[in-house]
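Lab notebook page, bench 4
Experiment: in silico fold of construct C2
Operator: M.H.
Input chain length: 188 residues
Purpose: comparison with the prior construct
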Amino acid sequence: MHSSNARAVHGEGLVKRYVRGAVSRSEGQKGSLPGCSADDVLQAVHLILRQELGTGYLECLGEALESTFRGSPAHEALKFAVRTALSRARSTVDKRKLRGLPQEVALDREIEDRTWGGIALVDLTLDLHATLDTFTLQERLIWQRCAEGKTLREIGAEIALPFQRVGEIRQRLMRKVGDRLGICLTRP
């Protein structure tokens, strides 16, 4: 017999392998998990297993490995947890799409370590997205057209506004974004 710590380690390894395999099969059948990773699913599985089997769930899984695992209550709980976590991961994104809500996007690992002026780019990116989410439809359109390099006159003609008004809106947006990011994007 193994000690409870050894069982917990075996249980942890089992959960990781089982989740990674299930995520890989799911992505092969239905495409990649939008807005989350295998680690997110693994964390959700741990939470569900803790609810289903209690705080000693890893030891319970490790103990089940020592005997007949397939068909055991621990195996059934693990299958349930993985199915539930995968289903939740997919349905959350689908619901957000249907409702037109902002989508979660997986963060590029290269960005995590970069800084700009001593501030992590991750923080700046999150602040920028939060600010852009507050823009009205007209403000978003002006912001996008400015980013595309269009002139104020071209934007004004496209949305039927005088170019001076487009310029005022652009200035307001630049101040809004600059205030949120803590940088000056406008002329003093």
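Observations: The beta strands are 115-116, 119-120. The mean pLDDT is 78.
Next step: discuss at group meeting.
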